[in-house]
Amino acid sequence: MKIALALAYVFLPPVITRLFYPESVFITGMHTHISELGIFSLMIYLIVKKRTPDLKSARLLALAFLLVFFADFIYTYKFNFALDIPLAVSRFSSLCYSGFMITLSVYLFSSFRRFLKDKVSLALCSLSFAVFAYLNFEYILSAIYSRNVGSSFSHYLNSAQYFYYANTTVYAFFLTVNISLLIPLVIRTRRFFENFFCAALLLVPISDFAIRFEEITRAKSSAPTPFGHGWEIGIVSVFMLLLYKKKTPEFTKDTVVSYFSIRVILVALILVFSTLLIAALFRLDIVVIRDAFTLSNTLFVLYLIIFLSNLISIRISSHVMALGDHLENIHKAKSAGAELTPEARLEILDRTANIYEVDNILERYNDLTNHANKLQGMAIRNSRLAAIGQTTQMVAHDVRKPFALIKHVLSAFEELRSDPAGLETAKKDIQGALSHVEAMIEDMMDFSREVKLLTRPESLSELVHETVAALKPGAGGADIRFHYDFRGPDLALIDRQRLKRAISNIVGNAVEAITVTGGKDSGNIYFRTADKGGRVELRIGNDGPGLPEEDLPRIFDSFFTKDKQGGTGLGLASARKIMELHGGTISAVNRAGGGVEFLLRLPASSGKEAPAEARPA
Hints:
Shape: elongated
Strand content: 5-15%
Structural class: alpha+beta
Number of helices: 18
Strand order of the largest sheet: 2-4-5-7-6
Number of strands: 8
Number of domains: 3
Radius of gyration: 41 Å
């Protein structure tokens, strides 16, 4: 509905004028004046409300269309009433027209400047400038200058004539600049808004060839030619586009495509072919350009060719680029860490371009997408089955030994009844085995389920002592010595049981590294705390063998069990998850004297916080 109303506003007044009032410029003038004031008012609104990303562009457009409003208003008044106007007013109108073209040139140059650095743009702008400068001189300026051929030199020094010639030359120069800047923009903009905006602006100077020639040759009482409607439609179209979008066009890398693209090459081929055809017709005297009127007719034909070829090329290009845009969105989502379902990773593009080649590409893309989704689903299922199989194998391996120990103790139970010391040892062995199995189950459950923490202020030194006391019986008879260096306040906001589990996993790994990997009967584990202002650090080191540097970043990965005889590979992964839930971090480095040191950083506590439930992960 909005588009229909906009089209009616753009084209209905010119049609009514040509059908019913061909000798009047009143309707055309009012239509143009309202649109020019509308553009000015809209730009002021966007500037005041700061609703446009480019305030400089909005200011330049506001100034340009305010100037052309003054100029067109005087022009309409002059020709509608066939009156002589004061010289000062006439000069003011001429200056406003020149000011409009100059301001428009500044706006276009500032918008297109970043794209003028390549040789193709410079060559195209230079060629366009040279062609239209020649046409301006050949069909407009020469006609103006020739009217006074034979006049004395003093005639050209007359202030009124000097002003007229100088202003007309300046106007023609910047009109040519505008055309040379608009042509590359028209063929390179990929979005309809920017493209239609540039096309509407391009219609204004193209129409002006005939309008200026008409002004030279037409008598006051003669009827105006229809070329003025090109100027009218161009300005009114700009107003409708800006009103619809309520922003200025954006000329960026996302909206201006490369010359070496389907969108540009297609338009360029059509334009070159059409130009060569017209040139051939001109050469064969089938088309004869006698004056600016026939020149404008030829330019209008080329303009329509450019406009229609742009519609086709943008439509084709948009469907082709939709594939790239879609894949880019998926990449951005992955980079942001978003979880994508298998179905969302590669989306079927449910659209057609009604163009055989493009639809063929879309169809093939959808076929590949369907196949990729199936393969992806199979890969996810296989990876899950592999993870389940790997975990089951590890659990079976580790659980078999504790149960074998329990079975052995039960089989020798009658003998142990008469040996209290042996019975006590067997009891401790069974408790250790069961604790080991329980720890494995806790690791797996902590890693796989949603965990909610209940945090409260706790002393890390007390928690470390409590954890070590629980782990000493499971040291397997090895002489593990624990060293403590607790400095400063060590209150942290933690979930006591969960953090105890994380520390237990780290210490358990340290004991295994010393006794199993290192093959030693004794070793040392060090604990040290420090207050770092808002954070509490807990360092846990050992004097076992170190780790290869390439393995250090991987030890917190799931199922990583380098040089371990069993274990689920989830202990340190679970510890990292617990630390992240606390808003903390965990890292590991090799110690200079041998062994590995873990660094845990946790939020410090003032001791006054109430218990709180942390967000689940």
